[in-house]
Design a protein that fits this description.
- By secondary structure, the protein is of the alpha+beta class.
- The chain is built from nine helices and 26 strands.
- The strands form five sheets. The chain has a seven-stranded antiparallel sheet. Strands 18-17-21-20-19-16-22 form a seven-stranded antiparallel sheet.
- Helix 8 runs parallel beside helix 9.
- The longest helix has 11 residues.
- The protein is globular.
- It starts with a strand and ends with a strand.
Amino acid sequence: MKRIIMTAAVTCVMLTAMAQGQDYIVKTNNVKPSAPQATSVTDGDITAENPNEPQNFVTKNFKYHSMCDWQEGMRFMVIPEKYDLIVNTFHDAATGNEVGNGKLRHKIMVYKNHTTGSNGRERINFVCEDDNRLYYFELPLGSYEDYCYSKHGVPTLAYLDDVDRARELLLEQTLITRQPVFYIDTQYEGDGVEEIIIPENTEVVVKAVGVGTRKFPVKIIVEEPKTGRQFFQNVVMSQTNNGMRDDEFVMDNKKFLFLNSFDVLTGTDIVSTDTKEYIGKTIFTKQPMEMTSKGDGRMRQVRVPRLMEFVIDAIIPHTDNRHFTLNLTESESRRIYSKDVTFVNDGNSADYFGTLFGLGEGKLRNSSPETRAMIRQGRAAIGMTDEEVELALGEPDNIILGNNGTFQWQYKRTKKLLIIQFNNLRKVISVNTK
């Protein structure tokens, strides 16, 4: 693991007194404050509606605003990067003097309007929520109309509405990781981080949401339920004022798009009642469930594990006009299944589509055909990952932690104990009973 120190020697100069925006600054649980800790965003935050289906989560909930569309009252936080410590962004409107970005670090700027200064240059005007002073950013060249439709925006400013919306939708939600590179904090007061590697498709719970950087403004801290280990990713949601073009999200930057780092896994999705939208779509099971399957020339009830992947072939309405039968093809075996669901959520329906299924690929696609077959049979074998074992056997009855990252899962059976031993790569090295 490589260590990255993201702050310059001037960091200590930038550390200002606690401001109103400090509850947006969140850290992973491995670092502790040397001074009284700022309010945690995990306490007393609003619990809002559950997320939409994964591929629509960002586009439905986070709207891009070009500068031409900015409305009075939009809120941003000053998050300087190294270059911003040399080139100042703002002027004090009362004096016309430049103000160092270090002095404004973590302060909240509220957009007011744009005007033309006495020197003929266009200005973007803000009021600071922390000191109630007026500041402005002077456009480097050209007219407001030429500048506002570009991706340039105002340097240093991270869009806070994305952070607030992500808090409402994601806190305490379960996600799965979609790429391996994440980070942990190494400094409470500074910005030092350490890069870590997390296996893809690790199930995690969102524990805090705060401000990341201007480019990637939403810092999402997640926790592995089994270990309590926390790590984070700074991600892009609406791309409002992040200063990057769409074609710049390639190579290493790809992971900073939310849906390239995480997928929404649990929770009751908000789904359309127009069943035609789902024909031909790929879905996955969010929980184990009973389905009807045709095999050996007859229909029978089978238990299907969570995160199995299917394609919806047909949706047949029942006479009550409330329930429907999904005809499904399992992606790997091409076996045919059916499941009765409703697309109307009354809060009590255990057969609600959004509770049972998510839109998108299932986790088993990364497992070998042999492993997928064993998972369907409810068996564990050497070489399986802990996630594959959990898919096959469910959560263990007991976990015993060993040395150097090894651990053991135990499952109570009627007359014996099933013991699964894992190495520090989280793969099975032995399966025994006693």
